[in-house]
Amino acid sequence: MTELLIMLIKTTVVFGVVLTHVAYTTYAERKIIGRAQARMGPMEVGPHGLLQPIADFIKIFFKEDVIPLNAERFIFQIAPIIVLVFTMINLTVIPFDRNFILADLNIGLLFILASASISVYGIILAGWASNSKYSFLGGLRSASQVLSYEIALGLSLAGVVLAAGSLNLRDIVVAQHNTALGIYAIPQIIGFIVFVIAAFAETNRAPFDLPEAETELVAGYLTEYSAFRYALFFLAEYVAMYIMASLCALCFLGGWTIPKFITDILPFLERVPGIIWFAIKVYAFIFLYIWVRATLPRYRFDQLLNIGWKVLIPAGIVNLLVIAFLKKFI
């Protein structure tokens, strides 16, 4: 009973902290993009607009939930829940520190890849059930995009699994920390670059936000959604960003650890809690998401698929072969 209570408290804390981060990531994104475009961003609600996320939540919560007359009603309603549930569930297997993890699975990395793939079905169903050409095209684009970039993402992480000898995220961090450099991003630079690019496409973020593509498809699969159901998709997208940022920190940047050669020079850094280092790495990746959105234009869909199949997948295979060779003979 006590263990169950502790687990419920941990789950509540993790979900609450992540959802708070999501709310204020939208604020940070609007502020950073505003600065990039020589304007101030949100300034009206609260000091420097700090209460803007709360105002947005209240507004969207009280909006009317409109369902198109010819939509497939049940699937239309359940699609955003599928996307959110199979995105949020990934938080349970992410180790935020050596001893802070909700479910320490031996196949944690595989679990994340599998559930991320399932969440795409929600987007496809949303596009089909809306009975709108814009939504349907957005759903088809999402299916094509994930089919290509999920392979590249898996290949980039396969090199990490091969080097660490485990699918357990905590074991990957420990194995990484025991290497000379303390991170896999440098020795596996090809895999790291492939992962970063594929992560942008996997989360439908600019410059790969083709399933939404406001200039072509109005809002893609989101076109017919409103009120709280729209907010669920929005929430799932930002949680997915944090999942990918966490994967990057855990698999390529040493997770909650810092390289030994740094702590040998500055031993006082060992007293800093591991979750602080983990958070810094995650925030850096989230900032990269926002920075890229502020600076790069959207790719055409044919360019998106060409990059995935002709560049990233071959690069991921090369990275995997190099790691396998080094693992075998060095």
TrEMBL record:
It is a multi-pass membrane protein. One of its GO terms (cellular component) is plasma membrane. It holds the Pfam family NADHdh. Its EC number is 7.1.1.-. The keyword Transit peptide does not apply. InterPro entries: NADH_UbQ_OxRdtase_su1/FPO (IPR001694), NADH_UbQ_OxRdtase_su1_CS (IPR018086). It is found in: Cell membrane; Membrane. One of its GO terms (molecular function) is oxidoreductase activity, acting on NAD(P)H, quinone or similar compound as acceptor. It is an enzyme of class 7 (translocase). NDH-1 shuttles electrons from NADH, via FMN and iron-sulfur (Fe-S) centers, to quinones in the respiratory chain. The immediate electron acceptor for the enzyme in this species is believed to be ubiquinone. Couples the redox reaction to proton translocation (for every two electrons transferred, four hydrogen ions are translocated across the cytoplasmic membrane), and thus conserves the redox energy in a proton gradient. This subunit may bind ubiquinone. Belongs to the complex I subunit 1 family. NDH-1 is composed of 14 different subunits. Subunits NuoA, H, J, K, L, M, N constitute the membrane sector of the complex. This is NADH-quinone oxidoreductase subunit H. It comes from Thermodesulfovibrio aggregans.
